[in-house]
Write a structure and sequence with these properties.
By secondary structure, this protein is mainly β. Helix content is 7%, strand content 40%.
Length: 234
């Protein structure tokens, strides 16, 4: 629930403001990402066939905001009887979980946005259509509670109230902490969020795993990035 997510955010720290990407930046990543929006709950299977083992039951709505569940599509397959299958990234433990869902009861869309978190540089780079749009200095996890690495995605975008820590916005990710199986009743969910009511210094490794950026930076990001957006952390 929302309070559970806030409890996780209380342990992260940062400050200061975003740094715009240089106009000379030439780094490129995949330009677009296909996403699938679930119109009904789906059982995610180990293989693209009806009798395959189920690895997860994915609800049609997200747990905090109640918006439609949106997942990145990795690949496609055609099954028996012409059933179309989608290989998708899944939220929750273990990190990096994937599964196959039927395309029936879904809607497809594409996003040009992609986020790359560089832990060594302690920086968040935001890509639009394969090119760097912004680059923000960040706080990342401290050595005892590191930010998990891998391929993730934005599960939900939250608008925080003025009194809540980590505001004004948070991007709740599919990643979960490897050091904290739970935190104050929460699932140890990792997020990219703001700095309201939290101290710290940008460019440091001081959080319990969350990635914090300046207020103006998270506001810019939340206005453009939606659920399903890929997030690579490494």
């Amino acid at each position: 629930m929302r309070a559970t997510f806030i409890a996780v955010c209380l342990v992260c720290a940062t400050s200061m403001s975003a740094v715009s990407a240089s106009a000379s930046t030439t780094t490129r990543v995949q330009a677009t990402q296909e996403l699938v929006v679930l119109l009904t709950a789906h059982g995610a299977l180990r293989a693209p066939e009806a009798g395959s083992q189920r690895v997860s039951l994915v609800p049609a709505h997200t747990p905090i905001t109640g918006e439609r569940t949106t997942l990145p599509v990795i690949s496609r397959a055609s099954g028996a009887g012409g059933v179309q299958w989608l290989h998708v990234m899944l939220p929750g433990r273990p990190d990096g979980l994937t599964g196959w869902i039927s395309q029936r009861g879904t809607s497809l869309l594409v996003t040009p946005w992609r986020i790359v978190v560089d832990l060594a540089a302690r920086r968040v780079r935001v890509y639009d259509d394969g090119r760097v749009a912004r680059s923000f200095q960040a706080v990342v996890g401290k050595p005892s509670t590191p930010t998990p690495t891998g391929e993730f995605f934005v599960e939900e975008v939250l608008r925080m109230t003025p009194a809540e820590p980590g505001g004004p916005f948070a991007l709740a990710l599919s990643a979960r902490s490897n050091a904290l199986q739970e935190f104050e009743g929460g699932p140890g969910q990792i997020a990219i969020h703001g700095r309201e009511h939290l101290g710290g210094t940008l460019g440091s490794a001081a959080s319990h795993g969350c990635i914090r950026i300046a207020t103006a930076s998270i506001a810019w990001l939340a206005a453009r990035v939606g659920p399903g957006t890929p997030v690579a952390v490494g």
